[in-house]
Write a structure and sequence with these properties.
Distance between the termini: 28 Å
CATH superfamily of the largest domain: HAD superfamily/HAD-like
CATH class of the largest domain: Alpha Beta
Structural class: alpha/beta
Radius of gyration: 19 Å
Number of domains: 2
């Protein structure tokens, strides 16, 4: 028996999909790569809606703010409600900071658009005298900013991360994500983040369920990463669907500490089961 047969790829032998009312979808590597739809993704989203189900995009990628994602999807031909159909690790981190560090000054390692979103969310940003440091997927940082961030981490300030991903998939392969920066910071300071808010952790899942009004037992996470997407379902009582269109592949399953309930080549192969 080959690995595809052993893992029942593109099959739903237990009828799990019949129970699902809400799909929490990863973006990069799951429905698109850069600005190109993965084959069948648009038809998959249409089918969800046609069958009376709902979906949201739940992404760990904090290099962009909500407006950038909404504009990107619009350019790609899809209009969504950003209040109920877009969940980012940035959103969840803002909610976490407002709950656990209200009014505290925050140094944010992030792109300018994310700084704007944090400020609009009530976060007091301070790059000179912060009380908390937050790492996000910053594609604009320079050595001076990274050095300052390490100084604050080394000083013992609370250290929060939007997400743990090591790589972000692109059409040509991968680009280093914030997890790679965490390794750099650890090498310099000896510290990893005290709290990671994004997938696979409960903070972003609870935030998502609250925003969309879904029940955990009727919700599935769909994604291409085992250590974030799939683990977020397994760890937090949701269903999990692993797609082979992005980072992880079947060869990674034997060494993974979590196993998905269902595996499909891409979201396109889910359509006949909806």
């Amino acid at each position: 028996m080959d690995s595809r047969e052993r893992y029942h790829v593109n099959q739903d032998p237990q009828g799990i999909l019949a129970q699902i009312r809400h799909f929490a979808l990863d973006m990069d590597g799951t429905v698109y790569l850069d600005e190109t739809w993965i084959d069948g993704a648009q038809d998959f989203l249409k089918r969800i809606t046609e069958t009376g189900r709902t979906y949201c995009f739940m992404t760990n990628n904090s290099s962009k703010n909500a407006e950038v994602y909404v504009d990107k999807l619009h350019r790609m031909g899809l209009d969504i409600d950003p209040k109920t159909q877009l969940i980012t690790s940035g959103h969840a981190t803002i909610a976490y900071l407002n709950k656990h560090f209200p009014g505290k000054r925050v140094f944010l390692l992030g792109n300018p658009v994310l700084l704007e979103e944090f400020a609009a969310g009530g976060i007091s940003l301070d790059a000179q005298d912060p009380e908390v440091v937050v790492s996000a997927f910053d594609t604009s940082f320079d050595y001076a900013k990274l050095r300052a961030f390490c100084d604050f981490v080394r000083a013992g300030l609370p250290y929060i991360a939007t997400h743990p991903d090591y790589n972000c998939p692109t059409k040509t392969g991968f680009m280093p994500d914030i997890g790679a920066i965490h390794a750099y910071v650890q090498a310099s300071t000896g510290r990893m983040p005290d709290k990671v808010v994004g997938k696979p952790n409960r903070e972003i899942i609870d935030y998502m369920l609250g925003v969309v009004g879904a029940k955990p037992e009727e919700t599935t996470v769909v994604g291409d990463r085992l250590y974030t997407d799939i683990k977020s379902g397994v760890r937090n009582g949701l269903h999990s669907i692993f797609v082979l269109s992005g980072e992880a592949q079947l060869v990674d399953l034997p060494d993974s500490d979590v196993q998905p309930e269902l595996i499909f080549d891409s979201v396109k192969e889910l359509i006949p089961f909806l």
